[in-house]
Design goal:
The complex is a heterodimer of chains A (121) and B (631). Chain A is α/β, with parallel strands linked by helices. Chain A contains four helices and five strands, in the order ααββαββαβ. Chain A has a five-stranded mixed sheet with strand order 1-2-3-4-5. By secondary structure, chain B is of the alpha/beta class. Chain B folds into four domains: 59 residues; 149 residues, PAS domain (Beta-Lactamase, 2-Layer Sandwich), CATH 3.30.450.20; 153 residues, Alpha-Beta Plaits (2-Layer Sandwich); 231 residues, TIM Barrel (Alpha-Beta Barrel). In chain B, 47% of the residues lie in helices and 20% in strands. Chain B has 21 helices and 21 strands. In chain B, the strands form three sheets. Chain B has an eight-stranded mixed β-barrel with strand order 12-13-15-16-17-18-19-20, surrounded by five helices. Chain B has a six-stranded antiparallel sheet with strand order 3-2-1-6-5-4, with helices on both faces. Chain B is rod-shaped, with a radius of gyration of 46 Å. At the A-B interface, α1, α2, α3 and β4 of A face α4, β1, β2 and β3 of B.
């Protein structure tokens, strides 16, 4: 329950980031927010979801900062990153279900399926 | 002064309109400067124009892409590595020094994914999400591209990093199957966009300035119009002046009104009797009383000194209700307890000419003309009545037409002989007025005089008749003629001077005076004495009718007295009339006044007249009026 609350909090921050981004927020401000998130994680060593892990830790769920990591790391439940100045936020529905994580319906727009990770057209 | 046609019925309407304009300006400002929609659109449009040359190469690439995968672009390209490689190669051909990345995007379940990406940095993998369904700026442009099926160039970006992107739809089988997304290097477009933004700002400032100028100009016109409106109202009577009508003839929707022209009967007499100030006071009261009876949408206009033009809003009345309303107005004024400053009761009545069917009339001028015709009908029928316009009234010659005919010198005189009853010798001729209308048809005095009565035209006409006859006297040395003049016209300088300048014709020019009630006879008597000294013969005309007063025979040094036809006609039937005429004739004979009788229609009348000592006669028995050439 605790971790879920944490994820919800993160989502709240990210949703804000998205809006700020749309309104042309300062890049430093964005980096600062990312740093704040990381600090939050460091303050919680017992957290069972890791944001932007530098090393792959198979024991913990992760929200990664790259699409390739999302594809390759089965513990990654989602990814948040910026590519070509476009903010990308996504969660894989199958991995959320497998880890018994329920997201609020308002996050539905960020959800993709495992099959969409594979380049099959 | 701005000559405008706007009509404000009250000050409140002006302020409402001004408030509306302010709201419009406010809304425009919000749209232009808060939402930036129009500004962004304009910016994007200019940007699109500046990089349009790339579109041709893009079209070539699309053709090549579709040639590689002719049936199902997405499936064939995505699943066939050979086609994928060819397509990637085709896409790379778009690369130039201004482009930072080119990608093909596909749409699946309302989400956008990369199909391929040619960039070397931040390269997206096949089927990597492009934008999710959260509403970014780019999503909005994609919606527009889907809607209009045409390319868009736009500026967007995260944080303070602008991206200049062109998105071109790839259309296969009339459907958008994918999109080419080209991101341009900011360093290349930054100077362009800076110029664009400055230009856009400049244009928007100019536009706003133009709008503000326009609004100021419109406000100025409206304000002027409102002030004009104030000038249109007579401060005394609080009703519209004639200039309001003149300036708004074309803009008044007269077909929505019944139109009535109202004249105060004999108001000149009120002015003469009680003075101009008293007259103005009474006029104000009458105007106020009429106005009180009108509905708010009715319009009352001062048409002339004591004439009002009233437009009655048709929707407020039924035909019967309207007629009742007019009768009420007439009754109210007639029963008005109007007193002069010396507490004398002044009875005021109204004559009205009314047009009910304004629907089929072309102009307001025509309506007023028709109302005027009906008003004169009311006057000629004895005043204090309402006449509703009908075609029949057109037969009456209107004053305006008469004025034109008189000014065009269309008048002429016929002559009727005045015959010595003893020997039937012609003594002289009476000049009879005729006016030729535009069709050459003669108009007779009975249709002229009632219309021009009490107007400046009456004097003008008399002057013209006098001039006409002086010319005849000049041309024909044995011709003797009598000319009719209203007694008060002798007091007019123009007539008097004409007679003074032509005294050489005085022995051959008889002046027949028509009496009227409203003149200073002491002054007239002095003028008659002067004319007599000049050698003119003076005759009192129409004696026994109208205002003729027996004391004038005593006071005026006259040469002739002409009995009115109404008396002469009666002598055959009425003994009393005969006796009265005989007595007056005797009196005249004893005082060296020659008596003439008009309307002599048969021999019996001639005998009776001769018997009573009447000197001369005039009438159809001797001859009707004829042109000079036929005498």
């Amino acid at each position: 329950m605790l971790s879920l609350r944490f994820i919800k909090k993160m989502f709240f921050i990210l949703a804000m980031m998205c809006n700020v981004g749309c309104a042309n927020a300062n890049a430093d401000e964005l980096s600062q927010m990312k740093a704040d998130v990381l600090k939050e994680i460091q303050r919680n060593p017992n957290a069972n979801v890791v944001m932007f892990p530098s090393n792959v830790d198979n024991s913990k769920l992760a929200i990664v900062g790259d699409f390739e990591d999302l594809k390759n790391n089965k513990n990654a439940i989602g990814a948040i990153y910026v590519k070509k100045s476009r903010l990308q936020v996504m969660f894989i529905t199958e991995r959320l279900i497998a880890n018994n994580i329920k997201l609020s319906p308002s996050f539905q727009q960020f959800i993709i399926t495992e099959s969409q990770l594979k380049p099959v057209f | 002064m701005v000559n405008n046609k706007l009509i404000f019925l009250d000050k409140r309407k002006f302020y409402q309109l001004l408030l509306f304009l302010i709201v419009v300006v406010f809304v425009l400002s919000v749209v232009l400067f808060k939402k930036h929609d129009l500004k962004t659109y304009f910016e994007n449009y200019l940007l699109h124009q500046s990089i349009q040359k790339d579109e041709n190469s893009v079209n070539k690439t699309i053709n090549e892409l579709l040639k590689n995968a002719p049936h199902n672009f997405v499936k064939e390209t995505g699943n066939n590595p050979e086609i994928y490689a060819k397509s990637l190669q085709a896409l790379r051909s778009l690369n130039d020094r201004n482009v930072s990345s080119q990608a093909i995007i596909i749409k699946e379940n309302e989400q956008y994914f990369y199909l391929m990406d040619t960039s070397t940095e931040e390269t997206a993998l096949p089927h990597e999400p492009f934008t999710m369904r959260y509403k970014t700026e780019e999503d909005k442009y994609f919606e527009k591209i889907n809607l209009y099926k045409e390319s868009r160039t736009y500026i967007h970006g995260l944080a303070d990093k602008d991206i200049f992107t062109s998105t071109i739809p790839i259309i296969q089988h009339q459907k958008i199957c994918a999109y080419i997304v080209i991101d341009y290097k900011p360093m290349f477009f930054k100077p362009v966009i800076s110029v664009l933004r400055t230009t856009t700002d400049f244009l928007f400032i100019i536009s706003l300035g133009f709008i503000l100028t326009l609004i100021t100009f419109v406000s100025y016109i409206l304000w002027n119009s409102y002030n004009n409106q104030l000038n249109y109202i007579n401060p005394q009577t609080k009703i519209y002046t004639r200039s309001y009508l003149m300036d708004n003839y074309d803009s008044i929707p007269f077909r929505k009104y019944f139109v009535a022209l109202i004249d105060i009967d004999y108001f000149k007499r009120v002015n003469d009797l009680y003075g101009q100030i008293e007259g103005d006071k009474i006029l104000k009261i009458i105007a106020q009383k009429i106005k009180e009876q009108l509905n708010p949408k009715d319009v009352m206009i001062e048409y002339a000194g004591e004439e009002f033009l009233i437009l009655f809003w048709k929707n407020s009345y039924t035909d019967i209700g309207f007629k009742k309303k007019l009768q009420n107005i007439s009754d109210t004024i007639e029963n008005l307890d109007c007193k002069s400053s010396s507490s004398e009761n002044i009875k005021i009545t109204l004559s009205m000419g009314v047009v009910l069917d304004t629907q089929n009339i072309k102009t307001l001028q025509d309506v007023v003309y028709k109302a005027d015709t009906s008003l004169y009908r009311s006057k000629s029928l004895g005043r204090n009545q309402i006449t509703y316009y009908s075609q029949e009234h057109e037969k009456l010659i209107d004053r305006e037409k008469l004025r034109e005919l008189i000014e065009q010198d269309k008048l002429l005189c016929y002559y009727q002989p005045i015959v010595d009853l003893k020997n039937y010798q012609i003594l002289h001729y009476e000049s009879l007025l005729r006016i030729k209308d535009e069709h050459g048809k003669l108009i007779y005095p009975d249709k002229i005089l009632p219309i021009i009565e009490n107007s400046y035209l009456s004097l003008k006409l008399s002057q013209r008749v006098l001039e006409y006859n002086i010319k005849m006297l000049k041309a024909h040395s044995t011709f003797v003629v009598s000319v009719n003049l209203n007694a008060e016209e002798l007091l007019e300088e123009s007539i008097y001077q004409l007679l003074v300048k032509n005294t050489q014709f005085a022995p051959r020019l008889h002046i027949e005076l028509l009496e009227s009630k409203e003149i200073d006879y002491d002054k007239v008597e002095l003028v008659i004495l002067e004319l007599k000294e000049m050698g003119y013969h003076i005759c009192i005309d129409d004696f026994g009718a109208g205002y003729a007063n027996i004391t004038h025979i005593l006071n005026f040094p006259i040469d002739y007295l002409k009995f009115d036809g109404s008396i002469v006609r009666q002598i055959q039937k009425d003994k009393k009339t005969y006796n009265l005429m005989k007595s007056i004739t005797d009196f005249c004979i004893n005082n060296d006044i020659k008596v003439i009788a008009e309307y002599v229609e048969n021999e019996r009348v001639v005998d009776m007249l001769r018997e009573m000592g009447v000197y001369a006669g005039q009438g159809f028995y001797f001859s009707k009026g004829k042109p000079f050439d036929e005498l």
